[in-house]
């Protein structure tokens, strides 16, 4: 075995390759995400098991552990009877999902270990995110022009899917991972000539923004704009660019709006949907049977509220929303398309309280404490995109997928692990 092979097979390099595959696995689907997650856990345990076991637990770690055991307890107690459901484990979706949810707890501690011990190569991860975002954006534009993407997936209705096939989630993907691209340039600022840097940044911003616009995923585009707002709010060093950025953005959006029918139709439809939802929830809920839902999102949000009332304190367990909702509302979705309504309906007020404590603590560390002490994080370039993406991910009024699904849980607990890992590393230094 030569020197090159030894370097490639280095445990640190292996794990960084696996971590950098994460944004790729989100394109490939849940099977690859789960496989990637399993390999990260496996190799972290093999190579850095001692560091993992000796990891000092913070108070927030104990609260996160309690959250997972509480979720399992809720799932267990809502599963008819213990003896029957152990024998019929495969048929008991609530118990099965509650047990498998523990994998994200193990994944969380593995990522924390890698961050705290300087094993996680952030530049490598940012480069991987950048390549994926550029590829998806160009593939989406290709699909807009030719009707198919490079894999042969056809556009459907008023939305584009790019490499995601039948799943119309490409806007959410770009919104989640694009900021790591822009922060890569902040990391490389001293190594690149500034005029060239600005040119590349502006070009990529326009390409990615156009891709998010044409995707037809309206809420991700709103969250994408909101993330830029938080960036200018939180990062003093780039605040001076706010006005030119605003002028460029408004000009770009207006031109696209006036010249691309699909974008104009999506914006009009989004405004109409929000107007309908506001009017609906201003009505009285007294006559539930005769309610006319103006759109699917309104129905799903409403179903989340009424399903929560079945078991308001403890909830019904993971996947219980889909089971209980059908008792109250016809043709329910699998989840209410809002993290907080789903958490309320599936692990109740107590679960919501625990989740809120975790979320608020992470926000306190990543954002509020950063305001108080700007020297808190020496690797400020690394913490900022994770902080902003976490804030956007848990934004209360955001339409979202299920909190407990593979992609969302992996993404959320990955970001939490990175933020708390960087915080702990700073404390140790």
Tell me what you see in this structure:
This protein has 429 residues and is mainly α. The chain has a domain at 62-101 and 289-429. The chain has helices at residues 3-8, 11-20, 22-28, 30-53, 59-77, 82-87, 93-100, 103-116, 122-146, 170-187, 194-214, 218-234, 242-259, 261-281, 296-308, 320-325, 339-372, 380-393, 406-428.
Brief rundown of the structure:
By secondary structure, the protein is mainly alpha-helical.
List its traits.
single chain; 429 residues; mainly alpha; 19 helices; 71% helix; globular
Mean pLDDT: 82
User: Which class of secondary structure composition applies to the elements?
Assistant: mainly alpha
Shape: globular
Helical amount: over 70%
Order of helices and strands: HHHHHHHHHHHHHHHHHHH
The description of the largest β-sheet is: none
Query: How many E-type strands?
Result: 0
Work out the radius of gyration.
22 Å
* Uncertain stretches: none
β-strand amount = under 5%
Distance between the termini: 37 Å
Helix segment tally: 19
